[in-house]
């Protein structure tokens, strides 16, 4: 409510004042109206709530003696005494201040100096936005971001250590076992020869685990350049690189879309799915079908096999880390392949799913953005908008 | 080019890896003298030494590991390329590090090749075979008195 002690002027200006007062009362941000001598003429309900005062306590008071001088803030003095008379307007002026009743507050001050229509005397509209919580959240966010950056750097270092320090002794063990085999050869009992072979197999398994773990930890943290990728040519290249048994058939659909994408991650995903389909097949004459189609802003890829299928109760589990459905002595697998697929696909905002019935083959389906550059731009814009 | 046999200076901290190189050479019937330094500091001492007992003198090639105590391979390359007497040295990096940063850093220092020894299950036989061909066909930097101003 605005003060009511001023001279009333009739009709139109009454309506205008009424209108203005309702705006001031409605706004959820604390507002103060000061006269030219910096005495409070009115405050709105939001001001009363925020600063825990009532209108009656503040009306007519000098701003700097208000509430035992708690508004006697050097920045506010400068703002009202120097800046406002010169510029008549102040936008988002940040002030941090400790209030005895409500504690430390960070505020944005917006002020307008205006002349009263009736008599030309000055008054000041001061809007106080309490940004304490927002600032706290922002600082928290900055701390999290810094923490995350440090964690990522540590992870990078870990990956480096894993790739060198853990691999070197493994390779040495393998060398030594190999030399024993070479130098002793047939002098070794059959059992010992077999043991040495097993030892080397286990070493190789360990190395594959390390490799895959490294790939997994790095997935999505390198920003590869975006290229024009003909998905059909890409699949042909992958099939060429794989060790496919001679009786096996891999059908690549003739009409597959061309994407704007980072080649390496997409290749990793398709490579993992196709090589899985071959590796886990129960017949040497299996068939794998790879196809893709455009669906809006995405490309939907499908890798289908006519292998043994995956029972429903395992279909969720296969995407977890280190999950394999058969003993590693039957099928050499690190159990990271599908976890890596999931991570890579989700990194570009896609999704991956499996459809299978036991004995009926398995179909993996995943989506990839048709234009990854556009997806990245969207992501960046999303980040920029949030405070 | 002199007919002195090419000396192989192996800069490698890991004893088993060093033995793997020696075995590979033996298997390929490569009889070139091999000298070993256990890190970059030791390698520089050998290259700069005046004592004929310890010195490594041309012609030589350097097989260099990256991760080593005291002075690693990349630092060693920096010292080598800064030294007017040694900057022409032929260096192959022979390492487990598949890290892009190491590859960039090493090629920045004009190495002859970056060779990964990381694959378990292979020894160095083929690698040594390749190196053996290399020094049979490649001209080494000429003697100091003929060398152009660099």
Walkthrough of the structure:
The complex is a heterodimer of chains A (387) and B (150). With 387 residues, chain A is of the alpha+beta class. Chain A has 12 helices and 12 strands. Helices cover 46% and strands 22% of the residues of chain A. Chain A has a 5-stranded antiparallel sheet with strand order 2-1-5-4-3, with helices on both faces. A 5-stranded mixed sheet of chain A has the order 7-9-10-12-11. In chain A, helix 9 crosses helix 10 (263-279). Chain A starts with 10 loop residues before the first helix and ends with a helix. Chain B has helices spanning 15-27, 40-48, 73-82, 100-108, 125-137; strands at residues 7-11, 34-37, 60-64, 90-95, 113-116. In chain B, strand 4, helix 4 and strand 5 (113-116) form a beta-alpha-beta unit. In chain B, helix 1 (15-27) crosses helix 5 (125-137) and helix 2 (40-48) runs parallel beside helix 3 (73-82). The A-B interface holds A 160, 163-165, 167-168, 170-172, 174-176, 178-179, 200, 203-204, 207 and B 14, 16-17, 19-20, 23, 67, 96-99, 117-121, 123.
Number of contiguous helices of chain A: 12
State the largest interface. Answer: A-B, 18 and 17 residues
CATH class category name of the largest domain in chain A? Alpha Beta
Mean pLDDT of chain A: 84
- Report the C-alpha radius of gyration of chain A, rounded: 35 Å
Written as H for each helix and E for each strand, in order along the chain, the element string of chain A is HEEHHHHEEEHHHEHEEHEEHEEH
- The percent range for helix content of chain A is 40-55%
Please tell me the total number of domains of chain A: 3
Oligomer: heterodimer
Main sheet of chain B, how many strands, which sense, barrel? 5 strands, parallel
- CA radius of gyration of chain B: 15 Å
Integer average pLDDT of chain B: 84
Report the sheet-strand fraction of chain B: 15-25%
């Amino acid at each position: 409510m605005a003060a009511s002690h001023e001279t009333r002027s009739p009709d139109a200006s009454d309506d205008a004042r009424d209108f203005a007062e309702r705006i001031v009362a409605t706004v959820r941000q604390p507002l103060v109206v000061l006269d030219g001598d910096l005495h409070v003429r009115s405050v709105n309900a939001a001001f009363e709530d925020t600063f825990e005062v009532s209108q009656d306590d503040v009306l007519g008071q000098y701003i700097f003696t208000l509430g035992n001088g708690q508004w006697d803030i050097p920045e506010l003095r400068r703002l009202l005494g120097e800046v406002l008379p010169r510029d008549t307007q102040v936008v988002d002026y940040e002030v941090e201040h400790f209030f005895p009743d409500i504690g430390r507050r960070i505020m944005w001050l917006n002020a307008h100096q205006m002349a009263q229509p009736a008599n030309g005397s000055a008054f000041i509209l001061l809007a106080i936005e309490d940004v304490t919580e927002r600032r706290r959240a922002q600082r928290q966010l900055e701390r999290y971001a810094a923490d995350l950056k440090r964690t990522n750097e540590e992870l990078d270092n870990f990956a480096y250590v894993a790739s060198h320090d853990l691999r070197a002794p493994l390779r040495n063990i393998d060398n030594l076992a190999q030399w024993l085999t070479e130098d002793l050869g047939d002098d070794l009992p059959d059992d010992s020869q077999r043991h040495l072979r097993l030892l080397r197999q286990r070493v190789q398994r360990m190395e594959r685990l390390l490799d895959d773990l490294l790939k997994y930890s790095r997935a999505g943290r390198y920003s590869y350049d975006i290229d024009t990728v003909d998905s059909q040519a890409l699949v042909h290249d992958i099939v060429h690189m794989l060790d496919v048994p001679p009786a096996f058939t891999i059908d690549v659909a003739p009409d597959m879309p061309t994407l704007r994408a980072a080649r390496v991650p997409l290749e990793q995903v398709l490579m993992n799915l196709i090589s899985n389909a071959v590796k886990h097949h129960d017949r040497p004459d299996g068939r794998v079908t790879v196809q893709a189609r455009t669906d809006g802003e995405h490309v939907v890829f499908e890798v289908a096999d006519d292998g043994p299928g995956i029972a429903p109760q395992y279909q969720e589990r296969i995407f977890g880390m280190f999950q394999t459905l058969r003993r590693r002595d039957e099928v050499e697998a690190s159990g990271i392949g599908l976890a890596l697929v999931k991570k890579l696909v989700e990194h570009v905002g896609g999704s991956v799913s499996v459809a299978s019935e036991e004995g009926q083959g398995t179909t993996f389906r995943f989506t990839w953005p048709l234009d990854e550059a556009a997806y990245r731009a969207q992501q960046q814009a999303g980040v920029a908008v949030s405070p | 080019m002199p007919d002195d046999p090419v000396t192989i200076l192996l800069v490698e901290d890991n004893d088993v890896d060093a033995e793997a190189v020696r075995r590979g050479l033996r298997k390929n019937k490569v009889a070139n003298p091999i000298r070993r330094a256990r890190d970059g500091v030791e390698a520089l001492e050998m290259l700069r030494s005046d004592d004929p007992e310890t010195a490594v003198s041309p012609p030589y090639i350097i097989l260099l590991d990256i991760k080593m105590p005291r002075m690693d391979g990349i630092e060693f390359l920096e010292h080598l390329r800064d030294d007017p007497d040694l900057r022409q040295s032929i260096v192959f990096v022979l390492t487990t590090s598949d890290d892009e940063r190491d590859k960039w850093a090493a090629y920045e220092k004009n190495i002859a090749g970056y060779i990964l020894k990381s694959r378990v299950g292979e020894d160095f036989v083929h690698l040594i075979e390749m190196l053996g061909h290399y020094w049979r066909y490649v001209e080494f930097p000429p003697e100091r008195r003929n060398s152009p101003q660099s």
